[in-house]
Design a protein that fits this description.
Layout (H helix, E strand, L loop, with lengths): L8 E6 L2 E3 L20 E3 L1 H16 L4 E10 L4 H10 L3 E6 L11 H8 L5 E5 L10 H9 L2 E11 L5 E8 L2 E8 L2 E5 L3 H4 L7 H7 L4 E4 L32 H10 L4
Parallel strand pairs: 1-4, 1-6, 4-5, 5-11, 6-10, 7-10
Antiparallel strand pairs: 2-3, 7-8, 8-9
Helix pairs in contact: 2-6, 3-4
Length: 262
């Protein structure tokens, strides 16, 4: 149930376990998807969202009731939750899927339905770096009928604690909008220029081990996470051929004609 007082906000931050951004992506031998036997870490956009939630509480200690993180994925995803807890979240929910489910990741609509719950403010990364769908936040706002502010780089709670001002990325630079609570906010990489996500310290990592993680299944949430689309085959892009130098414009035009571009 939603709390009766708006000034006691409960923030939900969805996080996702992804192949680490520094790892070179390769197709697995079965050509059913990418190789997932490599290093994984929290989705960078979600890491920004956790940081923003923690900073919001630091700036508005009397207004934020709790910060809860949630993830959907196999048992190893609990490592990502522990990282978020070490960064400052209070509790976590793990909607556990079968081992090896990375190759059949839930689609944005399924994720949004699983996240639909009674909270006042959801802060999440604008997209995951594995599928780059950039849809879950918008779909969740639509399902809940809440306002949304996407591609956020700065979030400020109003004095009356009934709305938030959000600086967001647009094609021409940035714009500031105000959204009534409850709301969905998705964070962009520009947030890093204002406040870089904190590292989880060793004492906080030890404390995170004692923080609660509630485990649920999609069935308990009455949500079907079966993808609507089936991946038939994944293949590496063709190897690019090396370029060549030309002595003058005439030779360039000649080569373009030979290649069928002119």
């Amino acid at each position: 149930m939603r709390p009766t007082l708006v000034n006691q906000l409960r923030i939900l931050v969805p996080v996702k376990r992804c192949v680490d951004y520094a790892v070179k992506i390769r197709v697995n031998p079965q050509q059913t998807g990418i190789d997932t036997t490599v290093k994984h870490s929290m989705n960078p956009f979600d890491e920004i969202a956790v940081e923003e939630a923690v900073r919001l509480r630091e700036r508005n200690k009397a207004s934020i009731q709790s910060i809860q993180v949630v993830t959907i994925g196999p048992p190893k995803s609990s490592e990502t939750l522990r990282t978020a807890l070490a960064m400052g979240a209070d509790s976590a929910i793990h909607v556990e899927t079968a081992e090896g489910a990375e190759q059949q990741m839930p689609e944005p609509l399924g994720v949004a339905k699983a996240l639909r719950a009674a909270v006042d403010l959801v802060i999440m990364g604008k997209q995951a770096i594995d599928d780059d769908a950039c849809q879950t936040g918008q779909v969740l706002a639509g399902l809940l009928g809440w306002g949304q502010a996407t591609f956020a780089s700065r979030v400020v709670v109003s004095e009356d604690e009934k709305s938030v001002s959000v600086l967001r990325e647009v094609d021409g630079g940035a714009e500031e909008i105000r959204v009534r609570l409850p709301a969905i906010i998705t964070t962009d990489l520009r947030y890093v220029f204002f406040s870089k996500p904190r590292y989880a310290s060793l004492p906080n990592i030890m404390k995170a081990k004692k923080k609660p993680i509630e485990k649920l299944t999609p069935q308990e949430l009455s949500v079907d996470l079966t993808p609507s689309f089936q991946v038939l085959k994944v293949a590496e892009p063709p190897v690019r051929k090396g370029g060549s130098k030309v002595a003058n414009v005439d030779e360039l035009v000649s080569k373009l004609k030979e290649a069928g571009f002119a």
